[in-house]
Amino acid sequence: EAKRQSILMQRTRIEVDWLLVAVLSATAGAVDVIGFLTLGGLFTAHITGNLVLLAAHHVTGHFSHIWPLLSVPVFIAVLGIVTVLFENKETSGTRRELLLLHAMLLLGFLGLGAGLGPFRNPDSGMALLAGMLGVAAMATQNALVKLDLPDFPSTAVLTTNTTRLTLDLAHILRAEAIQRISPEPGA
C-alpha cells in the first residue's frame, strides 16, 4: 500500500510539473508578444532574437534602440544572480521563491506596459524599465526550469521544445514498435 501511494504521489508530482511547464511556456510566449508589440520589437523571452538584432545593427551601423544593447547583459546578470542565490537550495523552497520573484517581475512588466504602453519611444526610461523587467522575469523563469525542473524542456525556446518533443515522440514510437515485434516472455 505504501509503495502504491508513493508511486501515485510521484505520478501526481510529474503531472503538476508538466502543467507548470505548460503555463510557463504560455507565459513566455505572451510576454514575448507583449514586449515585441509594446516596446518596439524587444524580445523579452527569446534573447537570441535580441542577439540577432544586435548583430544586424552592428553590421549595418544603425542602432535604432538601446534595449537590444541592454537586454542581453540584463538577462545574463539576472540569470547569474538567480542561479547563485538559488542553486543549492531545497527544491520545494526554490520553486516557491522563484515563482514569487517571477510573478513580481511579470507584474511590474505588465503593469508598466498596460498602464503606460504601447510606448511611442521604446528608448524612454519607462519603456526601458518595463522591457528590462520583462527580460528579468524571463531570466528568472529560465533559471527556475533549469534549477528546479532540469529534466523538462525549456519554456522559452520554441526550437528546443520542438526538437525535444520530436525526439520524445520518436522514442515512444520506437519503444512501442520494439514491444510489438518482441513482446516480453510470458506476456
Please state the CA-atom Rg, rounded to the nearest Å: 20 Å
Portion in strands: under 5%
Helix and strand run? HHHHHH
Helix fraction, binned, reads over 70%
What kind of sheet is the major sheet?
none
Shape: elongated
Distance between the termini: 25 Å
Low-pLDDT parts are: none
Keywords:
187 residues
In a nutshell, what does this entry contain?
With 187 residues, this protein is mostly helical. Helices cover 78% and strands 0% of the residues.
Structure description:
The chain is mainly alpha-helical and 187 residues long. The protein is built from 6 helices and no strands. The longest helix is centred in the N-terminal third of the chain and has 37 residues, at 2-38.
Secondary structure: elements and pairs:
Blueprint (H helix, E strand, L loop, with lengths): L1 H37 L8 H14 L6 H20 L4 H26 L8 H24 L9 H24 L6
